[in-house]
Amino acid sequence: MIYLEIVFWLLLLSILYSYLIYPFSLLIISLFGNKAKKQTRQLVYFPTVTLFVTAFNEEEFVIKKVENSLKLNYPKDKLRLVWVTDGSNDSTNELLQNFPEVTVFYEPQRNGKVHAMNRGMQFVDSEIVIFSDGNTLLSQDTVIAIVNAFANPKVGCVAGEKRIQMDVKDNAASSGEGLYWKYESWVKVQESKLGSCMGAAGELFAIRRSLFFSVPDDTILDDFTISLKIAMQGYKIDYTPEAFALEQASASVDEEMKRKIRIAAGSFQSVFRLLPLLNIFKYGILSWQFISHKLFRWIIIPLSLVLIIPINIILANYSSYISLYQSIGYFQILLYFIVLLGYLFRKRKTRWGFLFVPYYFFIANKAMWLGFFRFLGGKQSVKWERAKRA
Description:
Blueprint: H1 2-32, E1 49-54, H2 62-70, E2 79-84, H3 92-96, E3 102-105, H4 113-120, E4 128-133, E5 137-138, H5 142-149, E6 155-165, H6 172-194, E7 204-208, H7 222-232, E8 236-248, H8 253-273, H9 280-283, H10 285-318, H11 322-344, H12 357-376
Parallel strand pairs: 1-2, 1-4, 2-3, 6-8
Antiparallel strand pairs: 4-7, 5-8, 6-7
Helix pairs in contact: 1-6, 1-10, 6-12, 8-10, 8-12, 10-11, 10-12, 11-12
């Protein structure tokens, strides 16, 4: 029984570690171990920048996106707008023709986002490339903030902040996704103070053009792969929340699940392609961050959540500390009851969005399992369909 108790506490510790202990450790280290603060500067040199958008059938967002891009605070002669719209068969290309400032690369065949990115980057020669999705709006000083970050020659990639547009009252998808990204942003700020933040989100990230490499066309998480490969070369992934992309939340939990399952399948693909990063003797802090922030969330926590329930039941009946394990069991029952309430009221909007957090946590880990099986079956296509937004 003692061995079962050890396994139980290891499983519980693993859940607490990634979401609480690891972020708290980052905070302590940044407060007492790293006194350096990010410095901003008055730009005297403006490097050439390309805002690079890969899009498929984005007719609903084209006009807003381009108009937003044209209002970005940066010298117009230094900022180039490039769209790659392979396979689009709606009015995306026709709408883009109304904007002579935009260079469009199009081919009828749709081969996925990564293929479009690799093809389009052949025509980009600017010093800095900013990647952004077609359905996100950028903060006015996004380019300035990103260029400021690249003033540090050790920075090879800049991750912008993803923000979810939230209302006073939101449903489960909006509340959960919005609160999750606020938490995730805080963690990335702490990581960036210590070294590199753990990857970039495709809604907004930038790299030095000289560091771009062709990504295999079957890559699912291109943003994560590109950013981590750059970090593995010794460059820093800087997190710059002053540059942010605003996006509407998924229209429903079902739409959010589609997105999360695709990301989960890509997560397992990324683990295999970034296996060298597990060598903590070579990559040091970067390896620790990768294992703590990603590997635990992608593999260890979903597994722990499944195993801890039957072990808790056994210990609550046969352990020497029955009352302790019964109390923990009752607490789990309470949490899953809140998850059930989140499911029942998932379409209802409320001011108390934090009540949906346990439910969002549950579906995120459920998505990891579904994504794992999709990855094993090779069923996740790079030609994914964008989740409907609220």
